[in-house]
């Protein structure tokens, strides 16, 4: 991957289509990368102390999360004004992240993107945890013919994990974003939804590498207590009502206030208004996973 002076990124789109994910190197410029580590340290400390209430709680894989639990595996809503860390708006709108999303989504300009979620995935302190195999927008029990149909929907968004330290938590089945579960996979997962699947791989990220991946690829994750500090963002194409529905399952009312745009650059402001357009057209708040 190379980047020219305008931050345009050459993304291996053929690899992305084939595998359902692609790795991008050297995402943040060095000074921003260091500042990101500092901001994440503050966010993690607030989350661990319970001073920040929006956390992914160990024991529960999907939102909504309870107020408390044995440990945490994520910090939610990094751009929330009450967290007091406006640097996360600058990171979320980083030109290399946005131009990678543009390449994947086939849109000309970041101003055609929709601002979505920005969270942090971290290691639990004391309590190892793991996520079951899932597709983000298709419930596990969906019959294969329906699953096949849903997987042909046009791509309207993308998501990434940007590692600030070494990360080997995410496990994916390459190519599974384009096909329903095989009968062997369905049978194995019906007995144990964390069972190793044929051809699964661990996505290994070095600091400042990001993996962009299809959110409906078959994926799971394993969290031990080794340090993990990985930014987890999603971006949509403007005007996507279905994606507004997915964003809304995370309870992001703070995004609706005009004051949210303080500290965003012009591109970020446009991306925010694109999201508001989608909200305006969606009255559904859905919980996709039963858990
Ligand atoms: O921890 C990860 O890398 C994956 C998280 C995930 O699968 C999810 O949030 O749906």
Automatic annotation (TrEMBL):
Signal peptide: none annotated. It holds the Pfam family PhyH. This is Phytanoyl-CoA dioxygenase. It comes from Orbilia ellipsospora.
């Amino acid at each position: 991957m190379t980047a020219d002076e305008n931050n345009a990124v050459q993304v291996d789109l053929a690899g992305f289509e084939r595998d359902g994910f692609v790795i991008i190197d050297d995402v943040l410029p060095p000074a921003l990368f260091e500042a990101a580590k500092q901001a994440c340290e503050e966010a993690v400390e607030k989350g661990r102390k319970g001073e920040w209430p929006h956390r992914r709680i160990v024991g529960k894989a999907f939102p909504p999360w309870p107020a408390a639990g044995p440990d945490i595996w994520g910090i939610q809503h990094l751009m929330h004004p009450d967290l007091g860390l406006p640097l996360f708006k600058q990171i979320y709108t980083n030109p290399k992240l946005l131009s990678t999303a543009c390449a994947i989504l086939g849109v000309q300009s970041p101003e055609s993107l929709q601002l979505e979620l920005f969270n942090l995935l971290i290691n639990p302190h004391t309590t190892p945890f793991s996520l079951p195999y899932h597709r983000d927008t298709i419930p596990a029990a969906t019959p294969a013919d329906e699953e096949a149909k849903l997987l042909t929907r046009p791509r309207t968004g993308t998501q990434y994990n940007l590692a600030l330290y070494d990360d080997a938590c995410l496990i994916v089945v390459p190519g599974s974003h384009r096909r329903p579960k095989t009968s062997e996979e369905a049978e194995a997962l019906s007995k144990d939804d964390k069972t190793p699947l044929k051809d699964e791989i661990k996505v290994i990220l070095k600091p400042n590498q990001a993996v962009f991946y299809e959110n409906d690829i078959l994926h799971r994750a394993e969290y031990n207590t080794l340090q993990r500090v990985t930014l987890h963002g999603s971006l949509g194409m403007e005007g996507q009502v279905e994606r507004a529905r997915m964003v809304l399952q995370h309870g992001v009312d703070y995004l609706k206030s005009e004051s949210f745009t303080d500290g965003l650059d012009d591109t970020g402001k446009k991306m925010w208004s694109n999201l508001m357009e989608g909200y305006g057209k969606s009255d559904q708040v859905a919980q996709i996973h039963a858990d």
